[in-house]
Amino acid sequence: MHTRQWTVDILISEHEEDRRTRAEARLHSGTRTGLRGEGEARRSPRDREVPEIGDELAAARALSDLAYRLLDVSAGDIEQFTNKPVHLSA
Predict the structure, then answer these.
(1) Count of alpha carbons within 13 Å of 35, Cβ hemisphere only?
(2) CA–CA gap between residue 61 and residue 35 (Å, rounded)
(3) Would you state the pLDDT for residue 43?
(4) Which of 35, 72, 86, 90 has the fewest CB atoms within 10 Å, i.e. is most exposed?
C-alpha cells in the first residue's frame, strides 16, 4: 500500500468596505503546482455582521471551485492516455 498526503491551504480576506469575504483554496499535492479555487461571500447591508459565516461560505465555495478544477485536470490527464474525450462529474 502506498499512501500520499495532499494538503489544502485556505486563505481568507475580508473586505469590510464592500461587505465581502474572499477565499482561495490552494492544493499542494507534491506533483501538480498552481491548482487553486476561489470563492466569495457577500453580506447584505441589512444582515448582521457575523464574520464566521462569510468565512465559511467563501471557503466552501473556494473548495467547491477547487474540486471542479481538479476534475477538469483529471479528465485532461485521462484524455492524454485514451485519446478520447472524457466528461467527469462530481
Answers:
(1) 22
(2) 15
(3) 87
(4) 90
Of the chain, the end-to-end C-alpha distance in Å amounts to 26
Partners of 26 in the beta sheet?
9, 36
Dihedral angle, C-alpha 15, 18, 20, 24, nearest 10 °: -50
**Which residue in the block uniquely carries the three cell numbers 455582521?**
49
Q: Pick from 8, 15, 9, 7: which is nearest to 54 by CA?
A: 15
DSSP the chain: ------EEEEEEEEEGGGTEEEEEEEEE-SS--S-EEEEEEE--TTS---HHHHHHHHHHHHHHHHHHHHHHHHHHHHHHHH-S------
Q: What is the pLDDT of residues 18-67, one digit of tens each?
A: 899 999 999 999 887 789 999 999 988 888 888 899 999 999 999 999 99
**What count of residues does the chain have?**
90
